[in-house]
């Protein structure tokens, strides 16, 4: 299974479950040096109640989180991990089974939990 296939399966699993109402935007939180599975990196999906281009903390207002249901993956460094995850998100938005759920929101972003968010898709 490729990393993208694993990411797609993980995301399909999350998006096929009932989501709370009021999600305005999604963000993929990235974590470095996860202790589990020695993968090095992990992604978590959150849904925020608002999106604001001018407020970098918009993703802190979460109404949904995949919590401990994380996607673990390996990468040689954090920059590559961010690039890989953004590429997977873009690919999912183009052809993913449940991409419409993500695209219906104001924005989809990705970034490390203590870093800047990168907008991957915006309405």
Structure overview:
The chain is an alpha+beta fold and 123 residues long. The protein has one domain (3-15, 23-122). The protein is built from 3 helices and 6 strands, in the order H-E-E-E-E-H-H-E-E. Strands 1, 2, 3, 4, 5 and 6 form a 6-stranded mixed sheet that branches. Strand 5 (107-112) and strand 6 (118-122) form a beta hairpin. The longest helix has 18 residues, at 78-95. The chain is globular.
- How far from one another are the termini? 32 Å
- The share of residues in extended strands comes to 25-35%
Strand tally is 6
Task: Compute the number of structural domains.
Answer: 1
Structural class: alpha+beta
The whole-angstrom Rg is 13 Å
Keywords:
single chain, globular, 123 residues, six-stranded mixed beta sheet, 28% strand, alpha+beta, 6 strands
Brief summary:
The protein is of the alpha+beta class. The chain has 3 helices and 6 strands; from the N terminus they run αββββααββ.
List the helices and strands and how they pair.
Blueprint lengths: L2 H13 L9 E8 L8 E8 L13 E4 L5 E3 L4 H18 L3 H5 L3 E6 L5 E5 L1
Parallel strand pairs: 1-5
Antiparallel strand pairs: 1-2, 2-3, 2-4, 5-6
């Amino acid at each position: 299974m490729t990393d993208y296939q694993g990411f797609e399966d993980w995301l399909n699993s999350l998006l096929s479950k009932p989501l709370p109402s009021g999600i305005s935007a999604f963000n993929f939180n990235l974590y470095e040096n996860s202790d589990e599975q020695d993968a090095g990196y992990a992604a978590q999906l959150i849904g925020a109640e608002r999106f604001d281009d001018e407020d970098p903390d918009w993703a802190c207002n979460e109404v949904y989180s995949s919590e401990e249901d994380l996607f673990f993956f390996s990468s040689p460094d954090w920059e590559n991990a961010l690039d890989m995850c953004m590429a997977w998100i873009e690919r999912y938005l183009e052809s993913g089974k449940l991409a419409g759920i993500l695209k219906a929101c104001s924005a989809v972003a990705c970034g490390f939990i203590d870093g800047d968010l990168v907008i991957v898709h915006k309405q």
